[in-house]
Amino acid sequence: MALLQIEALTKSYGNEARALDQISFSIQAGEFVAIIGPSGAGKSTLLRCINRLVDLTSGDVRFAGVSVPTLRGGALRRQRTQIGMIFQHYNLVNRLSVLENVLHGRLGYKNMVQGVLGLYSETEKREAVRILESLGLGEQIYKRCDQLSGGQKQRVGIARALVQQPKMLLCDEPIASLDPNSAKIIMDTLQQINQKLDITVLVNLHQVDVALAYAQRIIGVNRGRVIFDGPPAELQQEQIQQIYGSESGELIFSLRERYAI
Amino acid sequence: MSQRSEPLPRIRVRPLTRANLSIQLTLLGLTLLTLYSFTTFDTRGIGLVEALQDMLNNFRLLLLEPRLRSVSFADLLEALFVTVGLGLLTTVFGAIIAFFLALFAAQNLAPIWLNNLIKGGTAFIRAVPTVLWVLFFAVAAGMGSVAAVIGMTFHSAGYLIKAYAESFEEIDAGVLEALRASGASWWQTVFQAVVPTSASALLSWTFVRFEINFSTAIAMGATAGAGGIGFDMFMASAFYLDLRELGAFTYAILVFAMALEWFATHMKARLGKSRE
Ligand SMILES: Nc1ncnc2c1ncn2[C@@H]1O[C@H](COP(=O)(O)OP(=O)(O)OP(=O)(O)O)[C@@H](O)[C@H]1O
Ligand SMILES: [Mg+2]
């Protein structure tokens, strides 16, 4: 059975045109999937429907056998602990230390008092430190987050998602604010997490070349509809033009040749 | 380069809009009113030179020759303590109430109808001056410290709710989203993200309000029978006509205000550093 099953998912904000229109696909456990598409296509909205940061208008999302749209309160929180999320702007609490930020990933497992007071068990703390060390941040654990570089912040974001012990990672343009070097480190890290920890990765990307290099499967979205769904090898210029509109096609395709993928 | 003699049209830096025009007319009106009032002062035959001399003499007594007579130094300290206590108590009460209500008044933390309800209520509370609130509660509690505490707390809460809520609203929406995405509950998000991010702003606003409440507490001592240094100053000035003693009280207040300022700055610096 698929880990994530999306059926006829539709989302409209108010009276505007549909941000997502009858989206259906499913993802098997262990896959590394990239979603590409132009700005405003609905990529961020799609990810947020999966962990219910936004409510869907109609359709169904099933994660690990549980239907997400009707979840509320404690059940929704428990569901969210199984899905880690990584953001373009890292979204860390800048005034807190690296370790405190990473431990925020455990809040979904805590009762109200423990979470409010920030009471974490020794096991949780040791696990957080171990993950930080594995991401090369062992020296930084007591630093305030606003003293880190962008690449370091994103690794803290990844650590925060990993202490959740998630089945799946949702990444919303994780490298869009990073220089090429840091971007490569982050993408390599995501790949390792996918291969070594067997965590399913679903990542929104603006860079087609990066998607082609890392993903086992690419989903192309335009105006809230799935235009393409298949392995990178099947993504031809024609499909890229359909996804991004005709003008951009050649530019992106030449990129692909340059990177010799 | 050829020189043209044709005059260029003048360029206005500020367009003459309706808003600009009304500001200029208002300023003109105020100027005329001021000039008019100068010409119609009732000076009761006191000469300008004489009046200035008197005033300077009074300042000399007040500032250069302070001393105590009707009260002892210990009395002064006790009165100052009462006034500081009144200011502190109302600030702390107000801050605690304001913290919880401000969470529901912030747009990024609570539904909009609740925001509007609380913001509307606090706007009304703030629109009525503190003194009127004290007098209002004096009807129920009688003139004195109880009415002063309730009335000042009321107005402090109204003020701090607005200030705190605006600090909360400045928090990056993405940070709150990230905690919700990991399964954190609303209260956990508040204490793990909202409070640490806005702590220094909350502290600043609370100190500002304490300064306001301290001076209000002095005024309440003089006018609403709340006791403390305000009452002693009222006695010294209106009853004993003793400017020298009034001067001593003024210095006591000044010293305390400076100590408070130093403490506030020190606290903020420490809060900034403690996490590094
Ligand atoms: N909170 C919101 N309220 C109203 N409309 C929204 C909201 N969020 C997104 N939209 C609309 O939904 C559509 C899809 O937006 P979304 O952010 O999902 O696109 P995206 O593919 O992530 O774009 P980008 O690549 O620029 O991040 C857009 O038309 C956008 O204007
Ligand atoms: Mg987006």
Automatic annotation (TrEMBL), chain A:
| One Pfam family hit | ABC_tran
Keywords for the protein's UniProt record, in alphabetical order:
ATP-binding, Cell membrane, Membrane, Nucleotide-binding, Translocase, Transport
Annotated ABC transporter domain residues = 4-248
UniProt-listed InterPro entries: AAA+_ATPase, ABC_transporter-like_ATP-bd, ABC_transporter-like_CS, ABC_transpr_PhnC, MetN_ABC_transporter-like, P-loop_NTPase
Q: Which molecular function term from Gene Ontology is one that the record holds?
A: ABC-type phosphonate transporter activity
Q: Which GO terms describe its cellular component?
A: membrane
Protein name stated in the entry: Phosphonate ABC transporter ATP-binding protein
This protein's species is: Candidatus Viridilinea mediisalina
Q: Give the encoding gene's name.
A: phnC
Automatic annotation (TrEMBL), chain B:
Q: Name one GO cellular component term.
A: plasma membrane
What is the protein name stated in its UniProt record? Answer: Phosphonate ABC transporter permease
Query: What SUPFAM superfamilies does the record point to?
Result: MetI-like
Which CDD domains does the UniProt record give? TM_PBP2
- Any one Gene Ontology biological process term? transmembrane transport
Subcellular localization(s) per the UniProt record: Cell membrane
Q: Which species is the source of this protein?
A: Candidatus Viridilinea mediisalina
How is it placed in the membrane, per its record?
A: Multi-pass membrane protein
